[in-house]
Write a sequence for this structure.
């Protein structure tokens, strides 16, 4: 199965991306255990975390066949190969760097760039993006997403990221969001694995 097909299957099971910004390698597997037990199938370790590639490697080995693992805050083309070498298959960015998107697509990896405007969205899709990350979602609204959905290809997935909590997901879903990226409402530095697990279950319950 290709990396894109693996992502699509994982997304169909649970359309929530766990963003573990600041996580350390020595705690990432226990946190991953809690996330996967709750039903999560997509996990991101941002590149501005401590030893991010080591965390990606540990997660990729531990959850092979059970969860798709990738890196976030990927800003440069050379980082794409570094993530691949660590076993990651998903490249997530806060911006729409077309070179990073093309490099990810050329490597057969999942590309999830950040967009805020229709122009960025169309350019990212043309470059080979797998799905789009509406970021920061706090600076947009469900109304903005609905307007974008009216002009983007029907199959294009736009995931709000930023400020998403269990109690504010429904308006976004009604506007056409098929899934979300989850940051500090799911994981913050210093949380125990058990706390992350409890947050993960709250998000799963909110999906209905």
């Amino acid at each position: 199965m290709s990396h894109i097909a693996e992502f699509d299957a994982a997304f169909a099971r649970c359309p929530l991306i766990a963003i573990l910004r600041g996580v350390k390698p020595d705690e990432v597997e226990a946190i991953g255990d809690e996330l996967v037990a709750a039903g999560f199938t997509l996990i991101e370790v941002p590149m501005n975390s401590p030893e991010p590639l080591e965390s990606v490697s540990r997660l990729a080995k531990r959850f092979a066949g059970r969860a798709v693992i990738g890196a976030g805050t990927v800003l440069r083309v050379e980082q794409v190969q570094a993530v691949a070498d660590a076993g990651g298959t998903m490249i997530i960015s806060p911006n729409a760097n077309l070179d990073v998107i093309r490099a990810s697509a050329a490597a057969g990896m999942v590309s999830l760039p950040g967009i805020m405007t229709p122009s960025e969205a169309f350019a990212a899709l043309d470059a080979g993006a797998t799905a789009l990350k509406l970021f920061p979602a706090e600076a947009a609204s469900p109304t903005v997403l609905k307007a974008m959905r009216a002009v983007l290809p029907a199959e294009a997935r736009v995931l709000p990221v930023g400020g998403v909590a269990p109690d504010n997901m429904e308006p976004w879903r009604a506007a056409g969001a098929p899934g979300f990226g989850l940051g500090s409402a799911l994981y913050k530095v210093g949380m125990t694995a058990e706390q992350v697990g409890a947050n993960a279950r709250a998000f799963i319950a909110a999906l209905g």
